[in-house]
Amino acid sequence: MSIEEKGLEPAPAVNSEVGNEATDKAFKEANSSTVRSIRWQKILTDNVRLVTVALAIALVVRFFIAEPRYIPSPSMVPTLAVGDRLLVEKVSYRFEPPHRGDIIVFEPPPQLQEYGYSASQAFIKRVIGLPGETVKVTQGQVFINNESLSESYILESPVYEMPPVRVPASSLFVMGDNRNDSNDSHVWGFLPVENAIGRAAFRFWPLEKVGWVAKNPRNPI
């Protein structure tokens, strides 16, 4: 006996179109979610790469090209004040030695490290005497090879006397511009050239003093 003969309605046929639409919708949603996930992964990967490259560049610049430093003491007044921020240029001394008048940042020499200064505790002074030159201080004047050094950049004339000393090879005689309040070569001796970190090149703070630091002021020697 057929279903019609039993008085029952036949079961409805499955609507294949409805089934396909549901499947397509689910597939599109899953595909969209996957695309979003891939897109975010790419953004994250790109950002990580960007940060990595930026850090690498910053490290290369800091170790080989330039690095920021601040002035912790008044030894370079009036040229540089406590709290001034500088960029220290580290390239030029790889190709040429420091010049007289350069303001250099350097690691403490062995004689200072013996008194407890850390090798990482940088100093900043001005180059006065070069290898082979004789330096002396008398009657408020600095003399290089018995010639008076013209120094318009110092705070005041030195009040101490220093007998003539000859700067050894591969060494420098450095002094602070604040001659009477500076722990420099007149106190602890000569600076090995190899201890030079770089040259004070640019002051970027405070804003009213932003500008290049004079490399080699005029003098008659």
Automatic annotation (TrEMBL):
Q: Which reactions appear under catalytic activity for this entry?
A: Cleavage of hydrophobic, N-terminal signal or leader sequences from secreted and periplasmic proteins
Native source organism of the sequence = Phormidesmis priestleyi Ana
A GO term from the CC aspect: plasma membrane
> Under what name is this protein listed?
Signal peptidase I
Judged by the first EC level, this protein's enzyme class is hydrolase
Q: Which GO terms describe its molecular function?
A: serine-type endopeptidase activity; signal peptidase activity
Q: Which segments carry the region annotation Disordered?
A: 1-22
The family database entries (InterPro entries) matched by this protein are listed as:
LexA/Signal_pep-like_sf (IPR036286), Pept_S26A_signal_pept_1 (IPR000223), Pept_S26A_signal_pept_1_CS (IPR019758), Pept_S26A_signal_pept_1_Lys-AS (IPR019757), Peptidase_S26 (IPR019533)
